[in-house]
């Protein structure tokens, strides 16, 4: 089993969207038994909560069921557990690297947009203070990057 963790700041908007988009693509390609998928936030302010209602609403509009419950990234277990730790923006990457001062797991840290296919963005922008278009943009980017991420994983792990 290859394990993938999507990480943003609050784990209520971007990483739950990435998690749901990637779960859907993995399922579509028949690889659900090969890949374990989770998400977390670098802050714990929303721990225990469902995703932001706007995230759930815009996901549903395009057929994605966003059911994750927010949790804080746990440096004691998550670095060891996950093979891919995929951040949404540069601040998330910086915060994750600070949580691994030895640098042993820095090679597991990626940015979602490292796997973009047709999009041009270099981050998944935080939609928290945006209108509906911010949530649509997040979904557009994470769906595109999910295709690239799964292609990368298929090559690397010979699924
Ligand atoms: P996310 O969005 O990192 O995409 O989940 C945010 C959610 C909550 C906050 C900031 C960003 N917040 O400050 O509470």
Instruction: Write down the overall mean pLDDT.
Output: 98
Number of domains: 1
Q: Under CATH, the topology is which?
A: Rossmann fold
Question: So what's the CATH class?
Answer: Alpha Beta
Order of helices and strands: EHEHHEHEH
Q: What general form does the structure show?
A: globular
Work out the radius of gyration: 14 Å
Query: Major beta sheet, specifics?
Result: 4 strands, parallel
Spatial strand sequence of the major β-sheet: 2-1-3-4
Class of secondary structure makeup: alpha/beta
Helix content: 25-40%
Q: What's the end-to-end separation, in Å?
A: 11 Å
Annotation, overall tally of beta strands:
4
CATH superfamily: Response regulator
| Low confidence ranges | none
The total count of helices amounts to: 5
Kindly estimate the percentage of residues that lie in beta strands according to DSSP.
5-15%
The CATH architecture category equals 3-Layer(aba) Sandwich
Small molecules held by this entry: 4-nitrophenyl phosphate
């Amino acid at each position: 089993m290859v394990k993938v963790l999507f990480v943003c700041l609050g784990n209520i908007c971007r990483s739950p969207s990435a998690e749901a988009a990637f779960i859907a693509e993995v399922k579509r390609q028949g690889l659900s038994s090969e890949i374990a998928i989770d998400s977390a936030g670098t802050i714990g302010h929303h721990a225990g909560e469902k995703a932001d209602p706007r995230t759930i609403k815009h996901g549903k509009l395009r057929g994605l069921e966003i059911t994750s419950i927010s949790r804080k990234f746990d440096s004691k277990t998550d670095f060891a557990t996950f093979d891919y730790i995929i951040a949404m923006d540069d601040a998330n990457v910086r915060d994750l690297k600070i949580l691994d001062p030895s640098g042993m797991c820095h090679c597991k840290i990626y940015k979602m947009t490292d796997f973009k296919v047709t999009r041009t963005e270099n981050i998944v922008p935080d939609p928290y203070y945006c209108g509906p278009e911010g949530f649509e943009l997040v979904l557009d980017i994470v769906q595109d990057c999910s295709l690239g991420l799964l292609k990368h994983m298929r090559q690397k792990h010979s699924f």
